[in-house]
Amino acid sequence: MNSQTNWGLQIDDSVFKFLKKIPRKDRDSLLVVIKLLPFNPYVGDIQKIKGDENAWRRRVGSYRIFFKIKVKEKIILISNIERRTSHTY
């Protein structure tokens, strides 16, 4: 599912609040991945979320970026970022 044109990117306000609270090194790593998502959202350590047709997660270290892909509109909606801990699963 490669695309020649870039995708639009929409980020929920809660994502920005979360990014302000985490260490700078982690924030920088996440921001690099977020900036690369519009070029091809299907690249990297991603996995489709069961039960939802367009929901995906991307793993970045101990963090997970949750997003939806609107294929027809060519928009990526980042809804949440969570840190995976020993209590997550």
CATH-defined architecture: 2-Layer Sandwich
List the total number of helices. 2
Work out the radius of gyration.
13 Å
Placed side by side, the strands forming the largest sheet appear as 1-5-4-3-2
What level of helicity do the residues show?
10-25%
Number of strands: 5
Largest sheet: 5 strands, mixed
The rough form would be described as globular
How are helices and strands ordered from N to C? EHHEEEE
- The first-level CATH class name: Alpha Beta
Instruction: List unreliable stretches of 5+ residues.
Output: none
As a percent range, the share of strand residues is 25-35%
CATH topology label:
YaeB-like fold
Mean pLDDT: 90
Number of domains: 1
Distance N to C terminus: 30 Å
**CATH superfamily membership:** RelE-like
Structural classification? alpha+beta
Characterise this structure.
The termini are far apart. The chain has a five-stranded mixed sheet. The mean pLDDT is 90. It has helices at residues 13-21, 24-36; strands at 8-11, 46-48, 55-60, 63-70, 75-83. A hairpin with a 2-residue loop joins strand 3 (55-60) and strand 4 (63-70). By secondary structure, it is α+β, with helices and mostly antiparallel strands. It has one domain (8-83): 2-Layer Sandwich (YaeB-like fold), CATH 3.30.2310.
